[in-house]
Structure formats: C-alpha cells, structure tokens
Specification:
Number of strands: 13
CATH class: Alpha Beta
Radius of gyration: 20 Å
Largest sheet: 9 strands, mixed
Number of helices: 6
Order of helices and strands: EHEEEHEHEHEEEEEEHEH
CATH superfamily: Survival protein SurE-like phosphatase/nucleotidase
Strand content: 25-35%
CATH topology: Stationary-phase Survival Protein Sure Homolog, Chain: A
Distance between the termini: 60 Å
Helix content: 25-40%
Bound molecules: manganese (II) ion
Length: 253
C-alpha cells in the first residue's frame, strides 16, 4: 500500500488541505499531519527551542503546534510506523511561483520530504481570492497519479501551481521554470497613532518578468504549471570563477 503523508502551511483547518487529502485517498493510505494554525511564509523554519505536541484531530489526521517542516520531520521520524512513499503539501491558498518559492512553507514541507529521501510534491492554487478547491483537488489527484505512474523518484521535489479556473477551462500541463518577480515599493513606512514609525512589508502588488517558459506565464495562460526544483544550492560556475581569484588569508602561506 502506498503511504502518503499530506501536510500544508495554511493550517489543519484549511479547505485546501481537506480537498488534497480527499483527492489522494484513492491512491494510497493518507495520513495528514499539519500545523495547528496558519504558517504561510514560514519557509523552512524548524522549531528547536520549545517542545512540540501532536494532537489527534480524527482518524489519520493530526495537528502539530509547529511549522510545516516540523510536521514532516515528526511524521517521518516519530509518528508514522512506515516511511511514507510520498509527501504532498497543499493545496496552498495562493500561488507559490518564481522567487516567492523560497518564502513558502508549502514548498519547504516538500523540500523536507525530499531531504528525507521521499519524493515530494507541493501544490498551490494560484489565487488569493476566495477559492473553490474542488477543481484543484481533481487536478491534484490527476497530477500525483501521473507522477506515480511515471515513477517520481526519491530525489525529486516538484512545485505545482494550478490556475484558479474551472477544470474544463484548463488548457493542459506545462513543465516550467521559476519566473522572476518585479517588486514595487516593497516597504511601506507610516506613523502610528502615538507618533512612532512603523513598517509594513508589501506595498503594491509585484509583477512578473515576461518569460514564456515560466511558471507564471503558464498559469496566466490557463495551464497547470509543474516545476521540478533543484535543492543543490552550490553554484558550480562560481566555484570555477572564484578559484581563479586566488583567495588568501593575509599572512597565510
Ligand atoms: Mn499558505
């Protein structure tokens, strides 16, 4: 039996999590281990300085008072009797594309799964507006099933973004690369009622660089975007360049 660990960063009560768990049930034995509250933009944070508690919500559904990464670690090393065959994180309420990928708790949970030797998939519905996860759930099922049929392997980490349109209007699936954000007025500075300055991260909505191979372009044209991620962060080209710099400590031989 295929063991599937499902988590998210929107918290245990999120509609997208339920839709995902429901859609994956026909593919294996699904266990949900998710944060007990919203953890969006938690990135790859780990809780190291306080104890973590697991609470059973219902059969096969557990909440953790920690981050998405905590959930995957606890699931794999403490709670599940068997190492899962697959980690699926989502369905996030909001896109996880381009540069934003590094902030994402949804993607971080999938990265953690991959680090633990389990093929992992992050799934996001690319809208901030109130969302119907019905169509996204159907797509999640189709995508995960075809990944399994093609033999997604242990080193793989894939980020999927689904356009917020009815299933019948989706044009297909595109394998994409991460797009590039253009941020505008990222920090807003204002004065509070007591005369002190405060700052708000956000400002105007960021836009995207045009790139027909990107995740953003695919989703905006009505395609499901599938981006395989590389977790190797070393810049091998820069190694060659920097070796030629002859870096030395003063006084060292
Ligand atoms: Mn989220």
């Amino acid at each position: 039996m295929m063991e599937i660990l499902v988590t998210n960063d929107d918290g245990i009560h999120a509609d997208g999590l339920r839709a995902l768990a429901r859609s994956l049930k026909p593919l294996g034995n699904v266990t949900v281990i998710a944060p007990d509250r919203e953890q969006s933009a938690a990135s790859h944070a780990l809780t190291l300085h306080r104890p973590l508690r697991i609470k059973k919500v219902e059969e096969g559904v557990l909440s953790v008072d920690g981050t998405p990464t905590d959930c995957v670690l606890l699931g794999v090393h403490a709670f599940l009797k068997q190492k899962p065959n697959l980690v699926v994180s989502g369905i996030n309420h909001g896109p996880n594309m381009g540069n934003d990928t590094t902030y994402s708790g949804t993607v971080a949970a999938a990265i953690e799964g991959t680090f633990l030797g389990i093929p992992s998939v992050a799934i996001s519905l690319a809208t901030w507006d109130s969302a119907d996860f019905g169509a996204a759930g159907t797509v999640a099922h189709e995508i995960v099933k075809s990944f399994l049929d093609h033999g997604i392997d242990a080193g793989m980490c894939v980020s999927v973004n689904i356009p917020p349109i009815p299933r019948a209007e989706m044009k297909g699936i595109r394998v994409t690369r991460l797009g590039k954000r253009i941020y505008h007025d990222v920090i807003v500075e204002k004065t509070d009622p007591r005369g002190k300055l405060y700052y708000w991260i956000g400002g105007e909505d960021p836009t995207w660089e045009q790139d027909e191979l990107s995740d953003f372009n695919a989703v905006s044209e009505g395609f499901v975007s599938v981006t395989p991620l590389m977790l190797e962060l070393t810049d091998y080209k820069a190694i060659v360049e920097m070796e030629s710099w002859g870096l030395k400590l003063a006084g060292a031989i």
